[in-house]
């Protein structure tokens, strides 16, 4: 599942909001432009750009060109970036950046919290059911 390489972007291939669509774009082969993309990602940890993607939210409308091949073939239009396009929108500030390990730990903690909340709700249901049963038994014995 693709996800955006910009440090603070939460867009993934699963992000679906009504009326909002975006596409993902591979890092360019040109080393100078690729380095400019990488600087804008604001990664704390060194990583490979081989499989990294950036979503279309970070590019201006002028950065895209018409997909003439698909238009001529009457196929679905794709978002095609100009070769020299550089992400300029919705970029992270320096203070917003966290390391990959920190982000991973935050995701794990979120899962633990959700699990604990689910367990707590089940305990509340059990206690309520047990209390109701005790009341029922006490009321019948009177």
What is the gist of this entry?
By secondary structure, the protein is mainly alpha-helical.
Number of helices, where a helix is a run of at least 4 consecutive DSSP H or I residues: 3
Order of helices and strands: EHEEHEH
Major sheet size, sense and barrel closure = 2 strands, antiparallel
| Amino- and carboxy-terminal Cα gap | 62 Å
Biggest sheet strand order reads 1-2
Q: How many distinct beta strands? A: 4
**Beta-strand content estimate:** 5-15%
Q: Which class do the helix and strand fractions yield?
A: mainly alpha
Runs in which pLDDT lies below 50 for 5 or more consecutive residues are none
What number is the mean pLDDT? 80
CA-based gyration radius: 25 Å
What overall geometry do the principal axes of the alpha carbons give? elongated
Q: Portion of residues in helices?
A: 40-55%
Task: Kindly give the count of domains.
Answer: 2
Report what the structure shows.
By secondary structure, the chain is mainly alpha-helical. The protein has 2 domains: 1-96, no CATH class; 98-142. The protein contains 3 helices and 4 strands. It has helices spanning 31-41, 68-72, 100-141, and strands at 24-26, 53-55, 64-65, 80-81. The strands form 2 sheets. It has a two-stranded antiparallel ribbon. The chain is elongated. The termini are far apart. The mean pLDDT is 80.
